[in-house]
Amino acid sequence: MVAVISGLRSALAGRGAFFGAIDRNRAFLGGWVYAGSALWAAVHLSLGVLLWALGAYFYRDGVGPGVLLVTVTALCALMLLRRTAPGTALAAGTAVLVVDTVFGPSSGVYLAYGDLLYAASVWGGRRSALAALLGAVAGAVAVMGAGLWAYAAGYVDGALGYLQLIGLYVMVFALPVVTGWSVREHRGRADLERERAEERIRMAELDRARAVAEERTRVARELHDVIANHMSAVAVQSTAALSRRTPDPELTRRVLEVVRDNSVQGLEEMRRMIGVLRAGERPAEERVTPRVDETDLLVRTAREAGMRVEVREHGEPGPLPPQVDAAAYRIMQESLTNAQRYADPRRVEIGLAYPPAGEAGTLVVTVENPLPDGGAAAPDPLGAGMGLAGMRERAVLLGGRFTAGPTADGRVWRVRAELPCAVLEPSDGAAARGGAEAEQ
Question: Which residue ranges run through the membrane (predicted)?
Answer without folding.
Answer: 37-59, 66-85, 91-118, 130-153, 159-183
